[in-house]
Amino acid sequence: MATIAVPLGAEAEGQEADAIKRPALSEYLRWSVDHKIIGVQYGISSFLFFIIGGAMAMLIRLELWSPDLDLMVSGAAYNSLFTIHGTIMIFLFIIPMWAAFGNFVVPLQLGAKDMAFPWLNAFAFWLIPPAAVVVLLGYFVSPAEAGWTSYPPLSTIFSGDGQTLWALGAHLLGISSIMGSINFIVTIFNMRPPEMTIWRMPLLCWAVLATSIIAVMATPFLAGALTLLLLDRVAGTTFFDAAGGGDVLLWQNIFWFYSHPAVYIMVLPGMGVLSEVLSIHSRKPVFGYRMVGLSSMGIAFVGFTVWAHHMFTSLQPELRIPFMITTMIIAVPTGIKMFSWLGTIWGGKIRFTSAMLFALGFLSLFVIGGITGVMLAALPFDIHVHDTYFVVSHFHFVLFGGSVFAIYAALYHWFPKITGRMMNERLGVIHFVFTYLGFLFTFFPMHIVGMLGMPRRVAVYDARFTDWNQLISFSAFVLGFSTFIVIFNVIRSYYRGPIAGANPWRALTLEWQTTSPPPPTNFVDDPIPFEEPYGYGTAASAAYLEAVDEAFGSGAPDGRGGH
Amino acid sequence: MENSRSRGPSISPAAVVVAAVFLLVSVIGINWFTSFVPVVLPEQASAESKSVDELFYILVIIGGVVFFLIQGMLLISVIAFRARPDDHSDGPTYHGNPLLEIIWTIIPALVVVFLAVISFNIWNQNSQPKASVNMIDGHSITINVTGARYAWTHTYVTERFDPNGTQIIINSGADLHTYIGQNVDLTLQTQDVIHSYWVPAMRVKQDLLPGDPMQGGRPTALRFTPVRVEGRPYPAEYPIVCAELCGDGHGRMRGTVIVYEDESQFLEQFYEPAIHAILNPPADPVLRGEVEIQNYICNSCHILDSLGWTSTTGPTLNGIADRAGERVPGQSAEEYIATSIWNSGAFRVPGYDQQMAAFGPDVMETANIMSPEQLYSIVAYLCTQGEASDCDMENPGRAIPNAITTVFGYDVDITFGMEAEEVAEEEVAEIEESAETPAEDGEESEGSDDSA
């Protein structure tokens, strides 16, 4: 442990505390091939869609306050509401939001100057705004109202033109996702510094790699399904029409062959974020680094074999058993991650930063989503709760309790690197408390109404469930309110937050070994990664961090910035 | 540091105390969880529900262990391992423990294998075809369920025949009638999109899949056996819900399972009266029409205040008789209403883009089968829905059958609509008429022209 790697060349000068060099805001509105600009573009646009989709969720909960149809003009209007809510949250919020953090952080963690294909990167982003416009244009004709799953024949012969626009928009978003993923794979395999073997790569990069492999392999199936749907709708083919020799289950099979892996596209990067945040903020190496990295690959692989569990009530009975087994197996690599994270914080020196709170919140909520996932895999029980609020609850535990909590953790963790300023920690804690409690009381009771007999996607329901639904709606409004806290915090911190310095969390991964925000070329010299990305607690790592502080000046003291 | 690498981080005595408390909490907690199992599930109204709930009970126990283990470790960590305010140091450089990693790979794998095996057994046991299904009065009959936007229709293809030798089909609308111990085996068919037939109290659910109508559709099956629920008065009612998004009215696509105490109660309160009603329809066609129209799914789309229908998917039927005569030039009110039902593709009311299902003689779906006599009575009933009906209210017994004959070429047996003497008189008159003017059709069409 004698050699102390000094991260940067001698040219790096200590930075003046007030002189953070940020790109002009107008940079973000233009075509740019800088991965950091593109990352922020992804982030801001995704967050706008989060707000739109969230507002729709509020309307959904307002409608469900009473068992009758009152807010919406018709059941169809309600159907289009949750259809567009789901579409926005999946295709325009979570997936591109991970492209935001992936874009900003991955090249920095690899010590690279940019992504492998900067132009392709920009192109992938700029497909999103027109795609969103196409999807939302549906409101001017007759919006898609067949759910985000768009099962034919409801989505073919029984839907209006908005459904065609929906499919076109989803097509564009799929293309964007494929291009972005190819870029990540090439970047991660080819642009690491020589010292960084694949086993020394930060776990966010592992997770983004696994995610990108899934996206490249699965998204073409979505494209195929959407193409068949479009042909059925506009060209008179009968791929999904039994009267013309087609099969309605064909759509379900192809769609879920994409959309189940898509769940991992949405949650694996969050798991990568968790490994980073838990390790850095508890000052301890990731427990079982290799198994955490490999389990991402395991999840990616097994994730391709479970799709038909979404079809337990429509699949031929004899085919249901194999999919039950594969679905249960996927709990094993997920369990490895959960236990490894617990092993990571166990015995550490936990700093309760906002990022850490959201990461711990992820742990405590995602485990519930995992448990209900195994319950849903158990075929006889699934038959009862299939297509009920139990399922709605389950996937929100995974995608909100999991992905969104990880997105918040990532936001608080990397905001200082992106903007050069710290976020307000006190507001962060308030935000966490509202989000956690609002979430728990919104989504946990949904398990119960689902089991008692409330199906999903209904605007009118049995009056027996009114009390439960009012509790859920009230909590949902609290959850919705919590979003304003983080919006306020981001805007305020962008202008008035304490200067972060290069490495406010004293982290060892390479993105922290440059100024905040990094210069256009990311690093002044080729950076030298520390021998292991999470080697906290050694004299060598202390010396490495010391050298970084010397090179850039220390900003907020010891990861407690913001007070 | 070497020490901590080999033996792991040291644990403070406080953590040991917390761990003990956690163990106690989790045992009490899991116990408490399982006490909720009956509360968060509907009544166990079928044999299947008992085994499914047993599985759920096991899932809750195992899930509870995982829940308390992880939340407990999390809680212990955030209490025991939080950094003191002045402590800026790092934690121990501890990279992992292969043995521990193997353990937490193998144990969950064994647990899921165990769960897969018991789930498979329960599934197998519940999906075994049963020996005697749908037993009614010593016969195994077919019970069909038809899903159409947005209503369920149940039809019983009975083993009885009417005097003409036609098999009697009981249409019980949105209600499924069964009795304790009957092995129910439903044949499910959809007329339009995918629906899902869910009876929460029975823990069964099955999608209805559109198939090729020329091949007889794509029937799916649903099996369950109702059991006695203690403290329930019989006949007991349980909701049927549509669980697969099917469009505008998905949320109100509901029905009821009515479980009778035993077969004799079932026969006495449902089956025999239903067959009796079919064999002895009300003499007045309007009264019969009021009964018949409620056996079809008309209520899923139309408003009709007299029957309490509220759906706005289709045009309203309130005052239909006042408008029916003016809809299509050259068509009488009777002809228009009859055509709209049997051949619904013929017109579309402006402002409504959804097509109604047809109920004419060529329909494939049992639930839509409507005989000329049933059509006659339904038209007669709808002719009363208005203030100044366009229909020939003086002589509906002639005008409506004539309309059906004119439009579809079907002869309507109108005998049920009249008293026996009237029929006799009518027959005599007809025989006399045909004897006097053998080849004259003009008489009849003149009559209907008058009425228009």
Lay out the secondary structure.
The complex is a heterodimer of chains A (563) and B (452).
Chain A: H1 35-63, H2 75-109, H3 118-126, H4 128-137, H5 161-190, H6 203-235, H7 248-281, H8 289-302, H9 317-329, H10 331-345, H11 354-377, H12 379-385, H13 389-419, H14 425-452, H15 466-496, H16 539-552
Helix pairs in contact in A: 1-2, 1-3, 1-15, 2-5, 2-7, 2-13, 3-5, 4-5, 5-6, 6-7, 6-8, 7-8, 7-10, 7-11, 7-13, 8-10, 10-11, 11-13, 11-14, 13-14, 14-15
Chain B: H1 2-7, H2 13-35, H3 37-40, H4 47-80, H5 98-127, E1 135-136, E2 139-140, E3 142-148, E4 151-161, E5 167-171, E6 175-179, E7 184-190, E8 195-199, E9 204-208, E10 220-224, E11 236-242, E12 254-260, H6 263-279, H7 285-293, E13 303-304, E14 309-310, H8 320-323, H9 333-342, H10 372-383, H11 396-408, H12 420-436, H13 442-451
Parallel strand pairs in B: 3-7, 6-12
Antiparallel strand pairs in B: 1-2, 3-4, 4-5, 7-10, 8-9, 8-11, 11-12, 13-14
Short structural summary:
With 563 residues, chain A is mainly α. Chain A has helices at 35-63, 75-109, 118-126, 128-137, 161-190, 203-235, 248-281, 289-302, 317-329, 331-345, 354-377, 379-385, 389-419, 425-452, 466-496, 539-552. Chain A is built from 16 helices and no strands.
Helicity level of chain B: 40-55%
The number of E-state strands of chain A comes to 0
Q: Quick one: CATH superfamily of chain A?
A: Cytochrome c oxidase-like, subunit I domain
Number of domains of chain A: 1
Mean pLDDT of chain A: 92
Class of secondary structure makeup of chain A: mainly alpha
What's the CATH class label of chain A?
Mainly Alpha
Strand content of chain A: under 5%
- Oligomerization category of the chains in this entry: heterodimer
State the end-to-end CA separation of chain A: 36 Å
Number of folding domains of chain B? 3
Number of DSSP-assigned strands of chain B: 14
CATH architecture of the largest domain in chain B: Orthogonal Bundle
Question: Biggest interface and which pair forms it?
Answer: A-B, 92 and 87 residues
Q: How are the strands of the biggest sheet of chain B laid out side by side? A: 5-4-3-7-10
Mean pLDDT of chain B: 83
String of helices and strands of chain A:
HHHHHHHHHHHHHHHH
Order of helices and strands of chain B: HHHHHEEEEEEEEEEEEHHEEHHHHHH
